[in-house]
Amino acid sequence: MFVKNKVCVIIIFIFCFLSINIYAQNVSSKELFNKQEFFDGKEIIYRGRIIGEMMCRDKGCWLNVKDEDFAIGIWVPSEISFIPKYTTSYKYQGDEIEVRGIFNRRCKQHLGEADIHAQEITLIREGSEVEHRLSENKRILAIIIWSGLCLILILMQLKRI
Amino acid sequence: MLIKPTSKDIKVILYYLGKIIVGIGFFTSLPIIVGFIFGEIEPIFDFLISSGLCFLLGLILIRLFKTDQLLSWTHGMLVVCLSWLMAMFLGAIPLYLSRHYASYLDSCFEAMSGLATTGLTLTIDLDSLSFSHNFFRHFLMFMGGQGIVIVAISFLVRGYSGAFKMYVGEAREEKILPSVVSTARFIWLVSIVYLILGVGVLSLVGIKEGMKLSSAIFNSLCIFMAGFDTGGFGPHSQNILYYHSLPFEFVTLVIMILGALNFKLHYSLWSGNRKEIVKNIETVTFFFSLMLIFLIVLLGLIQNGIYSGVMVYFRQGFYHLLSAHTGTGFGILYPTQLKQWSSLAILGLILAMSLGGSSCSTTGGIKVLRIGIILKTLSQDIKRILLPESSVIIEKFHHTKEIILEDKQVRSCLLITLCYIVLYFFGALVAVGLGYPFLEALFESVSASANVGLSLGITQVGMPAILKITYILQMWIGRLEFMSIFTLLGFLVSSIKGK
User: Fold this and answer.
1) Position B48 pLDDT exceeds 90
2) Which letter, b or e, does each residue of A102-141 get, where b requires 16 or more Cβ atoms within 10 Å of its Cβ?
3) % pLDDT > 90, chain B
4) Closest Cα in chain B, distance from residue A24 (Å)
5) Does residue B487 form part of some domain?
6) CB-based contact B48 A142, cutoff 8 Å
7) Which residue of A has its CA nearest to B61?
8) ipTM of the complex as predicted
9) pTM for this model (two decimals)
10) Fold of A26-129
């Protein structure tokens, strides 16, 4: 009987533990900002691409991660080792990551900023180089304009002579 | 009787407009260097196209309308007015070609926002915009802050008699040095010295806060140009929040204050007259209004109870207040978060934005000099009531020298103040008509008219085109401070009704 109860308690404990993990919702930045009070202090899962660069300080690093709508600051404590390979800029599409962490509407540690304190970061999709091909129309337009300009300058010069 | 403008009038206006457009061509070609540094081929072509168009149009106008006629006051004002519109249309071309704007109207909005040092943005996916285009957005602010005509006066049109007329048309009545050209060059000297110092300090802070050297320099350059010219653009979508750094924010506070000071005051300080800063009517009015409005904002935030800790109140409250009062528009909160401030705190920000900084600076809004003069007049009138009728009351104010208060100055101050108030409510009325709540509509309208750039979220790609056009007009009118706009209207009326 005692053993049975013990097993029951363990099962309930595991179930509760799992359900806490399940409770960490997938949230978009729009949802986060629209329901800030609701998500404040809760564990969430946020997915997006890294923008800019990783800025490392004494006790951790800052990452800015953007989904469809907004970018949000992710505080990555020193205990988590994560180094992005690509970050979004003109030439690169940044790594897509999933952050599990605590959302702070007004973080006390960071003087009132809205941020996410990461507990776990998973790389979903590695970023890549973005190929920018010069359009033929732009090339032709530039040649026409600058040829016209040269012609006008020559004409002006000839008139002066 | 209205006199119809002659073809000679149009000829002289278009001739000088051509010269300014050539000047615009020069500053549109500068990002090509940035493109070469960062190896951005497509953006280089965007700027080749737009600068080429500027040179082409400018040279055609110069060639077709060549004249020796001197500029009159009306001509000067009209050249300025039209130059700003042309700068917007031409400056919008490389932005539109970047494919980061939903329409040409949006890129015109961005160009005017940059030139008028407002800082409201409609860029799509700013974080992946090329370095060249991003540099150009901030450079637009730098040029607009100095005054695009001043740029032309200092480099292209040397010492001609119409220079002062165009200088005044750009809302700068005060000459620091005897000639306008030397004044324009002094403004450049101040800006370049602060640019070197500002970029240096910001870069050091950036590196200390974990940025790479090249990135720290680029970000610092952009932030300095936007901060000193009280513009408020940022190279990233999160604006100043991107850096998550208190020291970085502190340096931007100093830059914003420097940008909000009168260039005449800078000249006094540089000449060793340090007492001027505590005696000048502008700095005194600015200080007291800042403190008073900070109290209002603080009360509003306490009413909200959204923050805890003195430092947080100071960081969030004071930073946004100073950003609003100097007309910069840097932000460390998302619009949705700013919207959560109580109505009292929002009203405090609206008040600060509407007042603006010093005259002959890069700030917008009514300007604290005018507020100071109006308050002095009020004090004079109160004294007149309290003292015996026979007493003679002479009110003076200190603005680099002792000046006796005259009715002429008061009239002009009240007129401009009234015009600004009408402009603020006009934009709010349009937005309310389109279904936006009044307080948000007023906030956004004041932000556009006073060239601030803080937003409660109305300014976004999806907003109605009519509102975008309204804000463009407000930014343009607010930056030029009405007189040249009135001249343009008068010119148009006399073209139709004149004899």
Assistant:
1) yes
2) bbbbbbeebbbbbbbbbeebeeeeebeeeeeeeeeebeeb
3) 66
4) 23
5) no
6) yes
7) A152
8) 0.86
9) 0.92
10) OB fold (Dihydrolipoamide Acetyltransferase, E2P) (2.40.50)
